[in-house]
Design goal:
The structure holds 2 protein chains of 2 kinds. Chain A is of the alpha/beta class. Helix content of chain A is 34%, strand content 20%. Chain A is built from 14 helices and 17 strands. In chain A, the strands form 3 sheets. A 9-stranded mixed sheet of chain A has the order 16-15-14-13-7-12-11-8-17. In chain A, helix 9 crosses helix 14 and helix 10 runs parallel beside helix 14. Chain A starts with a helix and ends in a 22-residue tail after the last strand. Chain B has 2 domains: 8-158, no CATH class; 196-357, Dihydrodipicolinate Reductase, domain 2 (2-Layer Sandwich). Helices cover 29% and strands 32% of the residues of chain B. Chain B is elongated. Chain B has 10 helices and 17 strands. In chain B, the strands form 2 sheets. In chain B, strands 1, 2, 3, 4, 5, 6, 7, 8 and 9 form a 9-stranded mixed sheet that branches. Classes of the chains: A alpha/beta, B alpha/beta. At the A-B interface, helix 1, helix 4 and helix 12 of A face helix 7, helix 8 and strand 17 of B.
């Protein structure tokens, strides 16, 4: 090893499971909000517990409420105790919160930003070195451009000698035009490499495992194309209603809430070509190619390829539940969809002619997120005889929740003297094969952002490509008066969704 | 010890005196089937086999240690308890499921087998254990009470050997034993794992590009350790020596303190390993590094993490806490089991350097 090598590489990192992360000050905008309390602060605690945070780590909260550092520290401590996935170790919790600072200010208050700058400088001074800065925008989306602009004006978009990064929560725009405008606004202050647009689904182990599953196993890739795959169904269903989120949900609807971001990301993972390597841009380049290969619907074609609906009252898990229009906070004439389904086609060599069905909804029969890949039937089935049960093509199901795993349906002979067959499942369940608990998605994503690894974050062109697909549907639905098709709460969804299916395809039971 | 894996469990149990491996294996299959039939959510876990060879009279202590590993239980644990004078096999098997598991989620079953063996069985212990391990899963061997003949017999079955270099009273012999085993299996040394947070932090300190050249200028290393943890201290210095390509040679012991000089390319490195008699938990207590360029770093165990004390070239002092919870001894064993599924190729070179430094 030459001294030049030592200067270029740190020989001490070899073999370590956790690579060093540059010392960082994390600023959370919206630090007293629900997301911060339920997810971000507990995630930070768990990282601290495991010794995964950078060597020097400081936390600053920014929010409108008038709080002292001590009061914010108490709130953060309480939130961590309430929502952490493990019981906090008092000494670690105390050490984590000991240095926490709080800056009061509404996000459009320009005087708050120089104050924030002073706090950040003080941390640098205390450390005797400039620390990386990570701004986490955990606020209502209308504040994203405001905060970014004010950070820029206060000179906080860059810092000599260290990295400044900005994490932006979803939703990234509510239309294509908004997403473009937000990108323009954010990119006027930060460079793309500084921006980390969160889609927390990408932080889930099972979503990441899809790449390992596809590209590390020789078994599946040869059949992963139009010659062997009949269709793909991606489902993200909830048995719950909208709870106390009427204000957000009635403005968003199912399409914006889940399809435009999470479900299209899942589709990309199923359909993308193998990247050259797993660097951020190589992976994202491949995902963007998939999105570009999906023909955006026209106003005229929306009704043929997309279905929306609202739930009516029904029974879920033995409990009577109200319909969407009777939920607290929902306008009685709301046209917001609580169910969205669509058929997409990817016009490339691998997938031409293979329909991809996406569906999501509230108050459906069960909570499940899964991708079901249905293979083409065998050309001739000699066993199709009396007594065989449920003969159907092989289906590979990748389940994200609730029970993370992979199952493959196969046809097997029913024991007995006759040659009768029925489907059986070969199942792999994550919980049975690994000792480690999956880290919470936010733990992984916060660490990646601090490390500067954007692989699991959405790039500007990716967001716009997602909106290019969904925007015509949003426009058409918003311009088409109701009432919407309905489905009874606790069921499989609206019958209208069946019309999307081509050939012999059927929706998988939720 | 049977079935007692440290969590609230619902067990299915079988036992038989004067039994055979095939009877035990058959009983396990039956238990798995019965348990699954009773509760469809109960499914076999398939992660790794852990084979433990213990003295029967100390099996309670081992049970306590296994009880503390939390979620890092092996999916099938086979304990061979050695009883003096025993000539036949007695065995028990149990299947445990967390009693309060989510009824809508799969509940992995953990399998536990206790086989009472005699000294006469140890030379061919593989013939007893082989039918009991789940084929195609990694098998980890842990023999905390020695029994080298049993270890030799089982090395053909095990891909991983779990050991603790602190178990041997003589540090040099401990490191020699570990090194001998690295030729036959992947070794997970709990003494090495005790140094992980320290290694991570030293690596982080020198990670900024402007500090990396200082790695070449380390001129002094002091490690403070529990009096019984000399092997962990030597492994930590061995790691620095192997990664930074220092020439190593035997250190000298005097009044419990081990010291000497190693040779980096540009300067000597003074090494000092100091036992801390008042330290209550085994492992490392502190680390000090000094560079010829004038940097000085001290890390000490502290509440909520490691307390760092740093002085740079111009003499300005800084102190801060590097956050992290202590894993405790049960956590170290759990980590050892988890590490059996990973590979750290820096241990063997560090061990080789440590062995040459042993006084």
């Amino acid at each position: 090893m030459t001294s030049t090598t030592v200067e270029q590489e740190n020989p001490l990192t070899e073999g370590l499971e956790r690579l060093p992360v540059h010392s960082t000050t994390l600023t959370i905008f919206g630090a007293t909000g629900d997301l911060a309390k339920r997810k971000l602060l507990p995630a930070l605690y768990n990282l601290a517990h495991e010794g995964a945070l950078p060597e020097r780590f400081n936390l600053v909260g920014v929010s409108r409420g008038e709080l002292t550092d001590e009061a914010f520290r108490d709130e953060a401590t309480e939130a961590i105790k309430q929502f952490s996935r493990r019981t906090p170790d008092e000494t670690v919790l105390k050490a984590l919160t000991a240095n926490v600072r709080y800056v009061t200010g509404s996000f459009d208050d320009k005087t708050a930003y120089p104050k924030l700058g002073e706090v950040l400088d003080a941390f640098d001074e205390e450390a005797g070195q400039p620390l990386n800065r990570l701004f986490y925008l955990s606020t209502a989306p209308e504040f994203f451009p405001v905060i970014v602009e004010n950070l820029g004006e206060a000179g906080l978009g860059h810092h000599e000698g260290v990295e400044v990064r900005c994490v932006i929560e979803k939703p990234f725009g509510t239309t294509l035009a908004e997403a473009k405008e937000l990108n323009r606004s954010v990119l006027s202050v930060f460079e793309e490499r500084q921006i980390f647009r969160i889609d927390h689904y990408l932080g889930k182990e099972t979503v990441q495992n899809m790449m390992a599953f596809r590209f590390a196993n020789g078994l599946f890739e040869p059949v992963w194309n139009r010659n062997y795959i009949d269709h793909v169904q991606i489902t993200a269903s909830e048995d719950l209603g909208i709870g106390s989120r009427a204000g957000y949900y009635d403005n968003a609807g199912a399409l914006r809430d889940l399809v435009q971001n999470h479900m299209l990301q899942l589709l990309c993972h199923v359909a993308m070509e193998p990247p050259v390597d797993f660097s951020a841009d190589e992976v994202r380049d491949e995902k963007v190619k998939v999105l570009h290969a999906i023909k955006a619907p026209t106003a005229a074609s929306v009704d043929e390829m997309a279905v929306r609906a609202q739930y009516t009252k029904g029974t879920v898990g033995g409990e009577d539940v109200p319909g969407y229009l009777d939920e607290a906070g929902v306008p009685e004439d709301s046209n917001t969809e609580t169910y969205a389904a669509m058929r997409l086609e990817i016009d490339n060599w691998r997938w031409a002619g293979v329909p991809f069905y996406l569906r999501t909804g509230k108050r459906l029969a069960r909570k499940v997120t899964e991708i079901a890949v249905t293979l083409r039937p065998v050309p001739h089935l000699a066993f199709k005889q009396e007594g065989s049960v449920g003969v159907r093509p092989n289906q590979l199901v990748l389940t994200m929740q609730p029970n993370e795993g992979v199952s493959l349906s196969l046809l097997a002979k029913i024991p007995g003297t006759r040659m009768r067959i029925r489907p059986v499942n070969m199942e792999f369940l994550y919980g049975t094969a690994f000792l480690s608990q999956s880290p919470e998605a936010y733990e992984r994503l916060i660490m990646d952002a601090m490390r500067g690894d954007a692989t699991l974050f959405t790039r500007n062109d990716e967001v716009e490509a997602q909106w290019r697909i969904c925007d015509p549907i949003v426009q058409k639905w918003e311009s088409t008066p109701g009432p919407l098709p309905t489905y009874e709460a606790g069921t499989q969804g609206p019958a209208e969704a069946d019309a999307l299916l081509l050939g012999d395809a059927e929706w998988r039971a939720i | 010890m049977e079935g007692d894996l440290g969590v609230a469990t619902a067990d299915a149990v079988w036992s038989e005196r004067d039994t055979t491996p095939s009877r035990i294996e058959e009983a396990l299959r039956d238990l798995l089937r019965e348990r699954h039939a009773e509760d469809e959510a109960s499914v076999p876990a398939r992660v790794l086999n852990l084979v433990v060879v213990v003295d029967a009279e100390w099996s309670g202590e081992i049970a306590n240690r296994l009880r503390g590993v939390g979620r890092y239980h092996a999916s099938r644990t086979i304990v061979c308890a050695v009883e003096r004078g025993r000539t036949t096999l007695d065995a028990s098997a149990s299947i445990a499921v967390d009693a309060d598991h989510d009824p809508h989620a799969p509940a992995p079953m953990r399998e536990f087998v206790m086989v009472k063996v005699g000294p006469r069985h140890l030379d061919h212990l593989d013939r007893i254990v082989d039918p009991l391990v789940v084929t195609d899963l990694a098998t980890v061997l842990w023999s905390p009470h020695g029994h080298p003949e049993a270890v030799d017999s089982l090395l053909g079955l095990a891909q991983v050997v779990l050991l603790d270099s602190l178990d041997e009273p003589d540090v040099g012999e401990a490191l020699q034993r570990a090194r001998a085993l690295t030729g036959s299996a992947y070794v997970v040394d709990l003494a090495w794992l005790r140094s992980t947070p320290w290694r991570e932090r030293v690596a982080a300190t020198f990670d900024p590009v402007n500090l990396r050249p200082d790695l070449r200028m380390i001129s002094s290393v002091t490690v403070r350790h529990h009096p019984d943890s000399g092997a962990a201290a030597l492994l930590l210095v061995g790691w620095l020596a192997s990664r930074l390509e220092w020439d190593t040679g035997a250190l000298h012991a005097r009044d419990g303190v081990v010291s000497g000089k190693l040779h980096a390319r540009r300067q000597d490195v003074a090494v000092r390993l100091e036992p801390v008699p008042q330290m209550r938990t085994i492992g490392l207590a502190g680390l000090e590094l000094e560079t010829a360029s004038g940097r000085w770093l001290r890390l000490d165990r502290g509440p909520g993490g490691l307390r760092a004390h740093y002085r740079h070239k111009r003499g300005v002092d800084r102190e801060w806490t590097i956050l992290g919870a202590s894993r405790g001894e049960p956590g170290i064993l759990g980590e050892g089991i988890r590490q059996a599924l990973l590979r750290d190729h820096t241990y063997a070179p560090a061990l080789a350097c440590a062995e040459t430094m042993a006084p």
